[in-house]
Design goal:
Length: about 325
């Protein structure tokens, strides 16, 4: 009989070996990652895991090389809590590196990580799968934001296709709001996504293996859920579960389908909005969600009775393949 992924398979921390908690890095989300990483490190160590901090991918490579010749310094697996790309750990580069080095890691693999870091391509996959997502326009460098806004119709959001944590996100309610977005676009060398603004409630659904956690309805005190509301403010309200009955089942099923369609496995978070006319609309996937005091996956897990150290343990367990009885059992010391 299979073990539910909300129940620990192991009780002995030695089964994990020596664990690098990878945080920080050089992406625009460095500070959030450091905050998340410190929390994860403390939680794992509190459960007896031989965990240590590593700041950034080059330092991790050095640690793996050092461990190859010194068993006492061996890196047996990586808890990846880097955020973003270009030095972050969510764009597939880190995953490909660790695959090549045969070091297990938390979160989705190369495909899911690379795809979901690109919001535009993720939405294209969802559309091909018949999953709902707001209308959008892809903006290459130098694109005319005013013309794009007219083609979609205001209000819209403008955001980098390959960033996270609300970095570089602009809420455009009228023509006057386009100036700030245009100024940002002029100095940004990547693609931008312009997306129709969903008029309705905002939700997020954490994913843990094959389980969609209870949804969370997000109610910021301000006009929208920006960087300040996510990581600084203490007046943002989080209602969990965000829905009831059939609607709660529907949003969890949709989030899990979106996660899988994007090639993801392991753990993550799917952001969803509920349009007043169109219903649920998929916004994006986060493959290394925040683990700060304001973060959402820990809030949803707590609703199921999973405290923060137990959540970190369950995420780390996913780096150990589940073996069937025919394969000789799970091995190690398990619950």
């Amino acid at each position: 009989m299979s073990t539910p992924l909300t129940t620990a398979r192991y009780i002995d921390p030695a089964v994990f070996g020596r664990v690098a908690v990878l945080m920080g890095g050089t992406s625009a989300e460095r500070e959030v990652s450091l905050d998340s990483g410190r929390n994860v490190l403390e939680a794992l160590q509190a459960r007896g895991v031989d965990a240590f901090a590593i700041d950034g991918i080059p330092a991790l490579v050095d640690a793996i090389r050092a461990g190859a010749s010194d068993p006492a310094r061996r890196v047996d697996r990586v808890f990846n809590i880097l955020h973003g790309n270009r030095g972050g750990g969510e764009d597939g580069v880190l995953q490909g590196l660790l695959d090549a080095l045969a070091v297990p890691y938390t979160g989705p693999g190369v495909l899911g990580s690379a795809l979901t870091m690109d919001k535009i391509r993720t939405k294209q996959v969802w559309m091909a799968e018949g999953l709902p997502t707001p209308r959008f326009v892809r903006l290459a460098a130098g694109a005319d934001l005013s013309a794009a806004a007219r083609s979609l119709g205001l209000p819209v959001f403008v955001k980098p296709s390959c960033e996270g944590s609300s970095v570089g996100v602009f809420r455009i309610l009228g023509e006057a709001d386009l100036a700030a977005a245009a100024q940002f676009a002029a100095g940004y060398n990547g693609e931008l996504l312009m997306e129709r603004m969903v008029q309705g409630a905002e939700y997020t659904v954490g994913i843990l293996g094959d389980v969609a956690l209870p949804s969370i309805r997000i109610e910021p005190a301000g006009d929208w859920y920006d960087y300040h509301a996510k990581y600084v403010a203490d007046d943002t309200r989080y209602i969990c579960p965000g829905l009831e009955g059939g609607e709660e089942a529907e949003i969890r099923e949709l989030a899990l389908a979106a996660f899988r369609a994007a090639g993801c496995s392991g753990w993550g978070r799917v952001d969803v909005m509920r349009d007043r006319e169109l219903g649920f609309q998929l916004i994006e996937v986060n493959t290394a969600p925040g683990m700060t005091s304001h973060s959402l996956v820990p809030k949803a897990a707590a609703r199921l009775g999973i405290d923060f150290p137990s959540l970190c343990w369950l995420i780390l367990e996913q780096t150990i393949p589940v073996q069937t009885v025919a394969d000789g059992g799970e091995g190690g010391v398990h619950a």
